[in-house]
Amino acid sequence: QAGNMEINYLDGRSRKVKAESDYVLILSNGFMVNKRFSIGINLKAVQSELAEEVKVKSSALDLGVLLLASEDMSLGVVIRNLGSKVKYKEEEDPLPFNIRVGGGYKFYLNENEMTLGIDLIKPEDDRIKTHVGIEYTVIEGGIGDDKIGVYLRTGYEFGYETKGLTMGIGLRDKKIFYLDYAYLPQNDIGNNHYVSFGIKFDK
Question: Who wins on pLDDT, 4 or 68?
């Protein structure tokens, strides 16, 4: 939702409407080709409505591959938003297509696990962005014990006018429940807070 806006007509009438409403339904699946190589796919149904008057629908596809180069290193490539353009009457607006290439490496500091991650993102109509982050395992929460896993995270986003340092924390309950929080200072346009909660099901 993008908030409300007021429309003023030439005859003096006015009314408030929702400026924009966007919805995305995603169906995801991933499978292992072998012990080192995996493929994932997102099928997206997109609906967008402007000023409660113009409603459009579109579809898109995300495709990703993951390679476990070694026990401690992983490499991945993701292509996002392959699909049709969103057309508002006579105006067409493409979905935000981009390609992301990344890698992760695990190592140990004082017997605690650390993970370094680097992503390169190339939007279709912009220069390459670089995301660098690190996660430090304060407490490892494992199956069969009562410990809650605690993970501290920080990173930096290069190539943006307003983005920069990011910070966060993650909690894991026996690797089944998880709670993640991230803080992204955005300078002139305010601060962003992201919270996610999930439950993992094993076969």
Answer: 68
